[in-house]
């Protein structure tokens, strides 16, 4: 199992300032009933020692949890006492992280991006600048504001004329998710270069606003310090830092799914839009001043297309159409690599967390297309995704986007 997942011949880098995860173990835990779930939820809420890579929920086949070496025995004991099934996936996740860094180091030519590994914030911003300079009539650099630490929240706008509706793509809200930013630059590149006929048409039909990294401070922090950090980097109460930006939007904020404990990895924040990143991005969207045809959010993980809203099972707005479009599009996504997605509202397929960006956007602007991609999970969570799975993730997600446009036109939603 181990050798299947890990690369051979790992190159270890010396990164002394970083938090290392030597001998931290990745578990797959399969809760099967409400008792199992409430034990895991209590652990999730109370412990800063274990890292949950997805929230405890019976909608997931399993929960990915990372344990430090010193606490493995405790964990395994607690789980087996409650008959909760668990499995060791990686004995030492540091090895997987070292492999990711190695793949990133291979990139050498400045301004050029490759979609065969992960990308740094600096690479992405330089590439956006480069595309703006080399395609001045089509591409522009857009800035939605500044992060808490003062980094630009940079996006790329692709427009081939006036009078189009806006189509907005957002990623990189979860700091440890290095996959969605690569996927979004891949999609942007396809729309700009237009090598694929459908991409060319899509780039002519809408003005695209693509923000690969909404949480640049967190992204940097996962590269330089703590690989599994999830939140932004703004202080909240006491010595606590960070809010889960995926739960800070003003749509039934804090009602379910996230935590109100500031130290928790899924802390919803001190109020809706309490964070500079969410507040400014929401203002930016309000100021775009164009009708919005579509909004898609991309993040890790679980292979689910989540349709607004999380607070209710009612089919609000065009929920049923969106489910139809989503199901068909996820069929197209599966063609290349067989990756299967579930489609539904958050309560049905994910953890029912309110305060999500797509929910707020749907409620505020009602674009005919609105959904969140929870991306590929190939047995290991995306934070630990091997670099060789990056390009396939890009390709299949791009196929899904094209299929969403196609299916939406087919049933007259676009
Ligand atoms: C990890 O575990 C191995 C095997 O038990 C041990 O030899 C090694 O020293 C440990 N590494 C660290 C950094 O604790
Ligand atoms: C940040 O964005 C502003 C425009 O809003 C730009 O003038 C500035 O150069 C950008 N800073 C960096 C570091 O890219």
UniProtKB/TrEMBL annotation:
Signal peptide: 1-16
Domain Peptidase M14: start-end pairs: 117-408
Taxonomic path: Eukaryota, Metazoa, Ecdysozoa, Arthropoda, Hexapoda
Cofactor: Zn(2+)
Species assigned in the record: Plutella xylostella (Diamondback moth)
Keyword entries, A-Z: Carboxypeptidase, Disulfide bond, Hydrolase, Metal-binding, Metalloprotease, Protease, Signal, Zinc
UniProt cross-references to PANTHER family, sorted A to Z: PROTEASE FAMILY M14 CARBOXYPEPTIDASE A,B, ZINC CARBOXYPEPTIDASE A 1-LIKE PROTEIN
Protein family: Belongs to the peptidase M14 family.
Record's protein name: Peptidase M14 domain-containing protein
Classification via SMART domains: Zn_pept (SM00631)
Domain of life: Eukaryota
């Amino acid at each position: 199992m181990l050798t299947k997942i890990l690369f051979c011949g790992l190159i270890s880098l010396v990164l002394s300032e970083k938090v290392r995860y030597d001998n931290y173990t990745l578990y797959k835990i399969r809760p099967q009933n409400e008792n199992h779930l409430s034990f895991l939820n209590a652990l999730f809420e109370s412990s800063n020692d274990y890292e949950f890579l997805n929230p405890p929920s019976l909608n997931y086949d399993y929960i990915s949890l990372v344990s430090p070496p010193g606490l493995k025995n405790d964990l395994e004991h607690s789980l087996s006492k409650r008959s909760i099934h668990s499995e060791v996936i990686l004995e030492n996740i540091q090895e997987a992280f070292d492999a990711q860094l190695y793949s990133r180091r291979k990139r050498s030519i400045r301004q050029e991006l490759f979609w065969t590994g992960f990308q740094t914030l600096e690479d992405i911003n330089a590439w956006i600048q480069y595309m703006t300079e080399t395609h001045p009539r089509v591409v522009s650099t857009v800035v939605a504001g500044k992060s808490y630490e003062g980094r630009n929240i940079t996006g790329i706008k692709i427009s081939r004329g006036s009078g189009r509706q806006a189509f907005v793509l957002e990623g990189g809200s979860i700091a440890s998710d290095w996959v969605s930013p690569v996927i979004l630059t891949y999609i942007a590149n396809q729309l700009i270069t237009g090598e694929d006929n459908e991409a060319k048409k899509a780039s002519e039909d809408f003005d695209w606003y693509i923000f690969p990294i909404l949480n640049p401070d967190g992204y940097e922090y996962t590269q330089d310090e703590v690989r599994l950090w999830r939140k932004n980097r703004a202080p909240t109460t006491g010595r606590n830092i960070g809010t889960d930006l995926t739960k800070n939007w003003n749509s039934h904020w804090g009602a379910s799914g996230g935590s109100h404990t500031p130290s928790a990895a899924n802390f919803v924040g001190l109020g809706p839009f309490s964070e500079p990143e969410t507040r400014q991005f929401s203002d930016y969207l309000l100021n775009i001043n164009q009708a919005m045809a579509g909004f898609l959010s991309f993040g890790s993980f679980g292979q689910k297309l989540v349709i607004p809203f999380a607070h209710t099972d009612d089919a609000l707005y065009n929920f049923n159409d969106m489910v139809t479009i989503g199901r068909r599009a996820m069929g197209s996504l599966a063609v290349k690599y067989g990756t299967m997605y579930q489609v539904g509202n958050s309560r049905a397929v994910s953890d029912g967390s309110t305060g999500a960006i797509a929910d707020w956007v749907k409620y505020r602007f009602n674009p005919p297309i609105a959904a969140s991609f929870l991306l590929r999970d190939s047995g290991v969570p995306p934070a630990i995704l091997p670099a060789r799975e990056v390009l396939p993730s890009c390709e299949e997600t791009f196929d899904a986007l094209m299929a969403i446009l196609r299916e939406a036109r087919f049933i007259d939603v676009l």
